[in-house]
Design brief:
The chain has 69 residues and is mostly helical. The protein is built from two helices and no strands.
Length: 69
């Protein structure tokens, strides 16, 4: 079996800067999305009551079977 020299990976300062910039942009996008969700949740007059999916499914099953629900 032939042996080859180990593969060499070089990391330059430009690569590190680019990665840090990518992380900063990603964090800013996540914060913006979080802020939008918080603002949408706190909007007065637009509160929506959500029924859990499981409860809806159980109610539909009971209705199909003919149980009072």
């Amino acid at each position: 079996m032939l042996r080859r020299p180990p593969t060499r990976i070089e990391l330059k300062t430009e690569d590190i800067e680019e990665y840090e910039q990518f992380l900063n942009e990603r964090m800013m996008a996540e914060e913006d999305a979080k802020n939008k969700n918080e603002m949408a949740d706190s909007t007065p007059g637009k509160s929506v009551r959500r029924t859990p999916q499981r409860a809806v499914r159980k109610a539909k099953q009971a209705q199909r079977v003919g149980l009072p629900g």
